[in-house]
Protein backbone atom coordinates (compact mmCIF):
# COMPACT_ATOMS: atom_id res chain seq x y z
CA UNK A 1 0.00 0.00 0.00
CA UNK A 2 1.28 3.44 -0.89
CA UNK A 3 2.07 5.99 1.80
CA UNK A 4 -0.67 8.33 0.49
CA UNK A 5 -3.27 5.54 0.61
CA UNK A 6 -2.30 4.68 4.17
CA UNK A 7 -2.58 8.32 5.27
CA UNK A 8 -5.96 8.67 3.57
CA UNK A 9 -7.25 5.48 5.23
CA UNK A 10 -6.19 6.79 8.64
CA UNK A 11 -7.88 10.14 7.98
CA UNK A 12 -11.07 8.31 6.95
CA UNK A 13 -10.98 6.23 10.15
CA UNK A 14 -10.59 9.38 12.27
CA UNK A 15 -13.46 11.05 10.41
CA UNK A 16 -15.65 7.98 10.92
CA UNK A 17 -14.84 7.97 14.62
CA UNK A 18 -15.71 11.66 14.94
CA UNK A 19 -18.97 11.10 13.01
CA UNK A 20 -19.98 8.16 15.20
CA UNK A 21 -19.05 10.00 18.39
CA UNK A 22 -21.11 13.04 17.36
CA UNK A 23 -24.09 10.88 16.40
CA UNK A 24 -24.06 9.01 19.68
CA UNK A 25 -23.67 12.19 21.71
CA UNK A 26 -26.61 13.76 19.85
CA UNK A 27 -28.74 10.62 20.38
CA UNK A 28 -27.87 10.48 24.08
CA UNK A 29 -28.76 14.17 24.43
CA UNK A 30 -32.08 13.61 22.63
CA UNK A 31 -32.87 10.70 24.97
CA UNK A 32 -32.08 12.87 28.01
CA UNK A 33 -34.31 15.69 26.78
CA UNK A 34 -37.16 13.40 25.66
CA UNK A 35 -36.98 10.02 27.36
CA UNK A 36 -36.76 7.24 24.77
CA UNK A 37 -36.52 9.58 21.76
CA UNK A 38 -34.35 7.19 19.76
CA UNK A 39 -36.74 4.28 20.37
CA UNK A 40 -39.72 6.41 19.34
CA UNK A 41 -37.91 7.58 16.20
CA UNK A 42 -36.85 4.02 15.35
CA UNK A 43 -40.39 2.66 15.78
CA UNK A 44 -41.82 5.39 13.54
CA UNK A 45 -39.15 4.76 10.93
CA UNK A 46 -40.03 1.04 10.98
CA UNK A 47 -43.73 1.88 10.52
CA UNK A 48 -42.93 4.24 7.64
CA UNK A 49 -40.77 1.64 5.92
CA UNK A 50 -43.43 -1.07 6.29
CA UNK A 51 -45.84 1.12 4.29
CA UNK A 52 -43.26 2.11 1.67
CA UNK A 53 -43.24 0.04 -1.55
CA UNK A 54 -40.57 2.15 -3.28
CA UNK A 55 -37.10 3.54 -2.60
CA UNK A 56 -36.88 6.63 -0.40
CA UNK A 57 -34.51 9.03 1.32
CA UNK A 58 -34.59 9.79 5.02
CA UNK A 59 -35.29 13.38 4.02
CA UNK A 60 -38.50 12.23 2.32
CA UNK A 61 -39.43 9.94 5.23
CA UNK A 62 -39.02 12.82 7.66
CA UNK A 63 -41.08 15.15 5.48
CA UNK A 64 -43.91 12.68 4.87
CA UNK A 65 -44.19 11.11 8.34
CA UNK A 66 -41.41 11.30 10.86
CA UNK A 67 -41.37 15.05 11.51
CA UNK A 68 -45.06 14.92 12.52
CA UNK A 69 -44.86 11.64 14.44
CA UNK A 70 -41.59 12.22 16.32
CA UNK A 71 -40.73 15.29 18.39
CA UNK A 72 -37.73 17.08 16.89
CA UNK A 73 -34.42 16.15 18.51
CA UNK A 74 -32.28 18.96 19.95
CA UNK A 75 -29.68 18.11 17.29
CA UNK A 76 -30.61 16.54 13.94
CA UNK A 77 -27.49 14.37 14.11
CA UNK A 78 -29.50 12.18 16.51
CA UNK A 79 -31.25 10.79 13.42
CA UNK A 80 -27.92 9.28 12.38
CA UNK A 81 -27.95 6.74 15.19
CA UNK A 82 -31.55 5.80 14.34
CA UNK A 83 -30.60 5.27 10.69
CA UNK A 84 -27.52 3.21 11.59
CA UNK A 85 -29.66 1.05 13.90
CA UNK A 86 -32.23 0.52 11.12
CA UNK A 87 -29.51 -0.51 8.66
CA UNK A 88 -27.84 -2.83 11.15
CA UNK A 89 -31.14 -4.52 12.03
CA UNK A 90 -32.16 -4.93 8.38
CA UNK A 91 -35.11 -2.53 8.49
CA UNK A 92 -33.63 -0.48 5.65
CA UNK A 93 -31.05 -1.29 3.01
CA UNK A 94 -28.93 1.36 1.26
CA UNK A 95 -29.43 1.08 -2.50
CA UNK A 96 -26.10 2.73 -3.30
CA UNK A 97 -27.97 5.54 -5.03
CA UNK A 98 -28.34 9.18 -4.10
CA UNK A 99 -31.02 11.84 -4.45
CA UNK A 100 -30.98 15.56 -3.71
CA UNK A 101 -31.86 16.63 -0.21
CA UNK A 102 -34.36 19.42 0.36
CA UNK A 103 -33.20 19.89 3.95
CA UNK A 104 -29.49 20.25 3.13
CA UNK A 105 -29.38 22.65 0.19
CA UNK A 106 -29.82 19.90 -2.42
CA UNK A 107 -26.73 18.03 -1.28
CA UNK A 108 -26.62 14.28 -2.02
CA UNK A 109 -28.60 12.05 0.35
CA UNK A 110 -28.52 8.25 0.39
CA UNK A 111 -31.46 6.29 -1.00
CA UNK A 112 -32.84 3.29 0.92
CA UNK A 113 -35.36 0.52 0.40
CA UNK A 114 -37.29 -1.59 2.85
CA UNK A 115 -35.43 -4.54 4.29
CA UNK A 116 -36.55 -8.08 3.60
CA UNK A 117 -38.27 -8.55 6.96
CA UNK A 118 -40.60 -5.57 6.47
CA UNK A 119 -41.44 -6.17 2.82
CA UNK A 120 -45.09 -7.05 2.26
Summing up helix and strand content along with how strands pair, one would put the structural category as alpha+beta
Please give the order of strands in the largest beta sheet: 1-3-2
Number of domains: 1
Sequence of secondary-structure elements: HHEHHEE
The CATH class designation is Mainly Alpha
What gross morphology would you assign?
globular
Q: Specify Rg, calculated over alpha carbons.
A: 16 Å
Largest sheet: 3 strands, antiparallel
Number of helices: 4
In whole angstroms, the N-to-C terminal distance is 46 Å
Mean pLDDT score: 88
The fraction of residues assigned to DSSP E strands is 15-25%
Give me the count of strands.
Answer: 3
Topology-level CATH name: Arc Repressor Mutant, subunit A
Amount of helix:
55-70%
Under the CATH scheme, the architecture is Orthogonal Bundle
Ranges where pLDDT stays below 50 over 5 or more residues in a row are none
Summarize the entry for a quick read:
It is built from 4 helices and 3 strands; from the N terminus they run ααβααββ. The protein is of the alpha+beta class. It has helices spanning about 5-35, 35-50, 60-70, 80-90, and strands spanning about 55, 90-100, 110-115.
Amino acid sequence: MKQDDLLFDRARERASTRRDTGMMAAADHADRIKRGWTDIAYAELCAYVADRPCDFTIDRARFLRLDEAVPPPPDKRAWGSVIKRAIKSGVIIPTGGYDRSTSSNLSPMAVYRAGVWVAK
